């Protein structure tokens, strides 16, 4: 037996593991941990520690700093479980902000107040250019990184508690509104984009809310024009000059989207043009062929697409927005049309309705007013549902 548990006092247990002989003098070495809980929890933690020891991934606690652990977590865990783009984002935020402020603190000494002070500092003056603080959303992102890294440290036995678990991140800020187009601006944008090779792609983005990578990865076999649906099963992005094809970011992103009638017609027109181009080149259309590609079938360059989008926005004389804002436009217009947030979230690939409601909270007050009006109208269509408004005196004051 390479480890055991024993009770120190009521609700407190010691976990002892044998970590092998000292390489210098050959003496037996043991590592002790303290856990508050019951015997079952202590035995479960013992099994976790022995498992990491057996696999050769055990790190002896002591003077391991948060910075050292974050680097270990990035290279040994995050690199295997997130996309290359996400890993770059993790590393950038950790190296730019978290390490300078918290990196030197030993994990054993990290306290909740350290994180609370850090979040307040980032909100007040966290920008590297010295021009103010970071957005609440960015600081919440930092909190998520720290939480996940410490969660893994607890699992590995590097620390016995996740201090981020007892710290509340900054509240979401709803002050900044999303950049979206209204229906008239959508028409102007699409009319202008007819002169570009990306017209059908822009049209599809506005009618589905798909992400850029999802649009670039869409294949003809993923589109069912008879049933008026398409399936999101892969994405395309560029990393270090190479085109990378991968599965969607999570299970909810892998989804089916119902096509609007107009989009179904547009994609039929696009398919006819693609088939004609293929015929002229003397090659057949295959199910694996990308719906939106260069004429020779190569995947579109994401950066080139975004650049073309920006030029089209300028020519259309509509408010400045990013390509991703076409997704926000689709969701906002659907919500304003009375579509339930859950349905909108499913189209966007959100993992839960709370994400949809939080992201598009600026739309919800207007939806509540419209819903209240529709409720009255529904009752007025039935007998006894109408209030004699002429009998209500105006300007009632309290």
Concise synopsis of the structure shown:
By secondary structure, the chain is mostly helical. The chain has helices at residues 39-55, 66-81, 84-102, 112-125, 136-156, 183-193, 199-208, 212-216, 261-281, 302-316, 325-336, 341-348, 353-359, 364-380; strands spanning 3-9, 12-21, 28-36, 223-224, 229-232, 235-239, 242-246, 255-258.
Walk me through the structure.
The chain is mostly helical and 398 residues long. The chain has 3 domains: 3-55, no CATH class; 66-166, DNA polymerase, domain 1 (Orthogonal Bundle), CATH 1.10.150; 183-364, hpI Integrase, Chain A, CATH 1.10.443. 48% of the residues lie in helices and 12% in strands. The protein has 14 helices and 8 strands. It has helices at residues 39-55, 66-81, 84-102, 112-125, 136-156, 183-193, 199-208, 212-216, 261-281, 302-316, 325-336, 341-348, 353-359, 364-380, and strands spanning 3-9, 12-21, 28-36, 223-224, 229-232, 235-239, 242-246, 255-258. It has a 3-stranded antiparallel beta sheet, with helices on one face. Strands 4-5-8 form a 3-stranded antiparallel beta sheet, with no helix packed on it. Strands 6-7 form a two-stranded antiparallel ribbon. Strand 4 and strand 5 form a beta hairpin. The longest helix has 21 residues, at 136-156. The protein is elongated and about 80 Å long. The termini are far apart.
């Amino acid at each position: 037996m390479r480890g055991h548990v024993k009770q120190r006092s009521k609700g407190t247990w010691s976990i002892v593991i044998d970590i092998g002989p000292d390489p210098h003098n050959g003496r037996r070495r043991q590592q002790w941990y303290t856990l508050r809980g019951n015997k079952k929890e202590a035995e479960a933690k013992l099994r976790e520690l022995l498992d990491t020891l057996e696999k050769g991934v055990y790190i002896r606690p002591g003077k391991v700093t948060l910075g050292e652990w974050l680097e270990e977590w990035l290279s040994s865990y995050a690199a295997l479980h997130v996309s290359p783009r996400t890993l770059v984002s993790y590393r950038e935020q950790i190296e730019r902000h978290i390490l300078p402020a918290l990196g030197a603190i030993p994990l054993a000494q990290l306290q909740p107040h350290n994180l609370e002070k850090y979040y307040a500092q980032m909100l007040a003056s966290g920008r590297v250019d010295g021009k103010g603080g970071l957005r609440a959303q960015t600081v919440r992102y930092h909190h998520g990184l720290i939480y996940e890294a410490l969660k893994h440290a607890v699992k590995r036995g590097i620390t016995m508690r996740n201090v981020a678990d007892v710290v509340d991140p900054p509240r979401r800020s709803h002050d900044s509104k999303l950049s979206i187009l209204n229906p008239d601006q959508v028409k102007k944008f699409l009319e202008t984009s007819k002169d570009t090779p990306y017209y059908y792609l822009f049209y599809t983005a506005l009618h589905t809310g798909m992400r850029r990578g999802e649009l670039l990865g869409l294949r003809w076999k993923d589109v069912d024009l008879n049933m008026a649906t398409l399936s999101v099963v892969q994405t395309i992005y560029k990393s270090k000059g190479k085109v990378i094809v991968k599965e969607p970011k999570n299970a909810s992103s892998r989804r089916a989207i119902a096509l609007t009638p107009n989009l179904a017609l547009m994609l039929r027109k696009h398919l006819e043009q693609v088939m004609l181009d293929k015929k002229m080149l003397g090659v057949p259309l295959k199910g694996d062929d990308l719906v939106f590609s260069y004429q020779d079938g190569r995947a579109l360059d994401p950066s080139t697409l975004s650049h073309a989008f920006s030029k089209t926005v300028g020519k259309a004389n509509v408010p400045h927005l990013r390509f991703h804002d076409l997704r926000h436009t689709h969701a906002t217009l659907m919500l304003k049309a009375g579509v339930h947030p859950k349905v909108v979230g499913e189209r966007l690939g959100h993992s839960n309705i709370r994400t949809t409601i939080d992201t598009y909270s600026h739309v919800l007050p207007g939806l509540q007013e419209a819903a209240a009006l529709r409720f009255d109208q529904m009752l007025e269509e039935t007998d006894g549902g109408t209030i004699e408004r002429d009998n209500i005196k105006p300007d009632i004051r309290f």
